[in-house]
From TrEMBL:
A Pfam family hit: AHSA1
Entry similarity comment: Belongs to the AHA1 family.
Protein name as annotated: Uncharacterized protein YndB with AHSA1/START domain
Residue ranges of coiled coil: none
Higher taxonomy: Bacteria, Bacillati, Actinomycetota, Actinomycetes, Pseudonocardiales
Positions of the Activator of Hsp90 ATPase homologue 1/2-like C-terminal domain: 13-134
Amino acid sequence: MNSFTAELTVDRTPEEVFAAITDVRAWFSESITGVAKAVGDAFSFIDKSIPTSRIRVTELVPGRRVAWHVEDAYLAFIDQHDEWNDTRMTFDITPDADGTRLRFTHHGLTPDRACYQDCSRGWTSCVQSLGTLLTTGTGEPIPKSAAPEGHPAG
């Protein structure tokens, strides 16, 4: 089955898109701890309404690609809380006539997954926030909130 994908094109260079992707607090979530600037870096976030995750950077090709691996995740809003575990996300960056095309894919987030509908909406919002960061200089990351009930960190 096809994994979730979202795309956007912005009037920015591939290097600017790459730099924005690695600034995860600016577009993804304000509650992120850790960094995503080098291969091997890991970051986490805890939020009441969305997945809580520990994600490791597995690939960085400046101006071309960013890849992450989900080492641990807790999805509070579905019964199979670990549905994201061992999935990965890629950001493929391609120059085109209108600037730069970004293709985000959450490999393993497929329509047969319990969180697909909610998670695909969430990722769409995050990718739009990344686009806003690139076009206006200010993203719309998920605001900080308390840890979900029942989560080991909460």
